[in-house]
Amino acid sequence: MIMKEFPHHMMREIHEQPQAVQATLTEGHREAQSIVEEIRSKNYEMIYITGSGTSYHAGLAGQYALFTLTKLVTSLIPASEFPVWIPSVAKRRALLIAISQSGESTDVLAAVKAALEKEMDVLAVTNTPGSSLTEMSRYILLTRAGEELAVTATKSYVAQLATLFLLSLELTRPEGFGSEDLVQFRKKLFEAPKLISETISINEDLMRELSNTHKDKSFFFLLGSGSNYATALEGALKLKEACNIFAEGFASREFLHGPLQLLNEKTPVLFMLSGDEIDGFLGLMETIRKFGAPLISISEKSDRVEEVSTGLACIPEGFPKTFSPILY
Q: What element of type H or E holds 106?
């Protein structure tokens, strides 16, 4: 087997995402099933989610999935803020989902310590067995991303998403969601590795072309709605970490309330749209173009989106919107 050469660790690890998600889904499925019954039996009245940076953004996508599928009351709090935001007296039976790739994040461990002092149970989502986080947690879900050498988290991020989406599915009760729908959602999630590979393949040349076109720009905006608000935040973080440029993520319509005025021909906008959002956001896309800003759309194939965009990255059709950050 001939190994493909990559210019740096980050590019190689992007291409390792399908394998990381495949391993995480295969092994994590059994782990999630083994702890879900105990979690259900506890009848938690509140689920907190915490993490830092990329892990926080994974938590945001996980919060969307948990609420959409299970209707559980969830609250996402950055790890550095968690000890000062939680009530001094916890009046509800609560579970903290703590997310950390290394399992050694200082802020995440401090958040877990604060949760334990309030007699909360902790579920760890981490890539590192035997880490401090796993030692402190009642439940453990391991991602299977393997060693990640780049500073920028790519394959570990999508593995975290896969784990959180798996957990959401396992916590979903068929009587409240529909047995057939639940089977289809699970089937679709397990197709993610193939679709991630397809997404990379069909967009790699376009991304190289767009990066050459905009390599002199130093100010980017990223927009996403619903579950892909998390993608907008994570994409902006990646541009900061990897390229040392200013990038800011926004919930799509929040961009209208002030930031829109900063647009010009030197401020590219990356706009993530699921298929059912296109009609609702065409007006905003046209407004962005009127300001002269280059508009790079990330969406399912659409002639209407292509007409108002300077570039269209295509996402395979038919993947559940709830899980779509794993592709976007």
A: helix 106-117
3-state secondary structure 267-306: CCEEEEECHHHHHHHHHHHHHHHHCCCCEEEEECCCHHHH
User: Do 157 and 54 touch, CB atoms closer than 8 A?
Assistant: yes
Q: Is 149 exposed, middle or buried (0-12, 13-18, 19+ CB in 10 A)?
A: exposed
Question: What does the alpha-carbon distance between residue 125 and residue 168 come to, in Å, rounded to a whole number?
Answer: 13
User: Which residue in 120, 283, 70, 310 sits closest to 209, CA to CA?
Assistant: 310
- 300/84 Cα distance (integer angstroms): 41
Instruction: Give the tokens for residue 275.
Output: 């298929």
> Do 272 and 230 contact (CB within 8 A), yes or no?
no
Q: Which two tokens stand for residue 75?
A: 């609250």
Give the model's pLDDT for residue 225: 97
Q: Cα–Cα distance between 172 and 185 in angstroms, integer?
A: 11
Average pLDDT on 309-324 reads 95
For position 3, what pLDDT does the model report?
Answer: 58
Quick one: angle between helices 54-70 and 155-171, nearest 10?
A: 20
